[in-house]
TrEMBL record:
<protein>
    <submittedName>
        <fullName>Transcriptional regulator, XRE family</fullName>
    </submittedName>
</protein>
<dbReference type="InterPro" id="IPR001387">
    <property type="entry name" value="Cro/C1-type_HTH"/>
</dbReference>
<keyword id="KW-0238">DNA-binding</keyword>
<dbReference type="Pfam" id="PF01381">
    <property type="entry name" value="HTH_3"/>
</dbReference>
<dbReference type="GO" id="GO:0003677">
    <property type="term" value="F:DNA binding"/>
</dbReference>
<feature type="domain" description="HTH cro/C1-type">
    <location>
        <begin position="6"/>
        <end position="60"/>
    </location>
</feature>
<dbReference type="InterPro" id="IPR010982">
    <property type="entry name" value="Lambda_DNA-bd_dom_sf"/>
</dbReference>
């Protein structure tokens, strides 16, 4: 499983799910699905999300042992 910190990073920046979705060119529903671990983003999308937050990809996504 790939864990993510989307919700935390969004909260730190006061971004809505819709704002993040617009920044990376996906739907708000896609952001919700990623945050709830119902969808694992492609590598390209993961890099786009990290770029939107201006952090390394490993600050957003990490592999879990679960």
């Amino acid at each position: 499983m790939i864990k993510n910190r989307l919700k935390i990073l969004r909260a730190e920046r006061n971004w809505t799910q819709a704002a993040l979705a617009k920044k990376v060119g996906i739907s708000r529903q896609a952001v919700i699905s990623i945050e709830k671990y119902k969808y694992t983003p492609s590598l390209e999308l993961a890099f786009d999300i990290a770029l939107a937050f201006n952090v390394p990809i490993t600050d957003v996504f990490q592999k879990s042992e679960v």
